[in-house]
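FW: tagging you since you asked about this chain on Friday. Here's the raw sequence from the shared folder, copied in full. Didn't touch anything.
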Amino acid sequence: IPAFEKNGFITKLDMYVCEEVCRHQREEKDKGNSVVPVSVNLSRINFYNENLYKEVLGLLDKYNLKSEDIKLEITESAYEDNPEDLIMAIHTLQKYGFKVLMDDFGSGYSSLNMLNLLPCDIVKLDKRFVDKLETDDKSKAIVLSTISLAHTLQMSVTAEGVETKNQYDLLKEMHCDTIQGFYCAKPMPEDDYENLIKG
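HL: got it, structure written out here
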C-alpha cells in the first residue's frame, strides 16, 4: 500500500474495491437477500481528490444503490497531511448521505483533538486499547471515557480487534455501539460471508 500511495495507483485500487463492494451489494439485493452496509477503506490521497464524491456516487448509480449501502473509512493519520481539504471532503460525502468512519482511533499522537476537528460519524477504537482491556485499568478507563465523549459528540463507536467474550462483555457494559474482530468472525471468502449474513 505505501508503494501504491507513492505512485498514485492507490486511487485506482480504492475505486476497484469500492466497485466490488457495490457489485456484491447489488447481487445480493437482486437475489432478494437483505444486505448490511459494507465499509470501504479509502486512502488519504483519495480524500484529497475533489471528484471523490462524484466517483463514488457514480458507482452507486451504476449499481442502483443508496449511500446507506456502503460506509467510507479514513485513518486518523490522514488529518496530518491537509486538514482543511480532508474536512471539506468529509462534509461533502456526508451531504450525500454517506457515513464516514475514523479508523484506528487512538493510534496517533493527538487523538482527542481528532474528535474535536474531524466531523466523522463513527469512531473505530484502535485494537491496542481492546488488547489491554481485561488487564490494564488505564486502558479500560480510556476506552470508557472515549466512548462517553464520542457519544456526547453524537458519534457512534466501534471497537476493533475484539477476540474474547470478556472483551465483548466489558464493551457492552461501556455502551460501545458495535464491535469488530475474531469474536464475531475471522476474514472469510465472499460465499462464506453471504451464508453468515443469511444465517
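FW: The chain has a mean pLDDT of 90.
HL: agreed, and The CA atoms of residues 129 and 142 lie 8 Å apart.
FW: great, closing this out.
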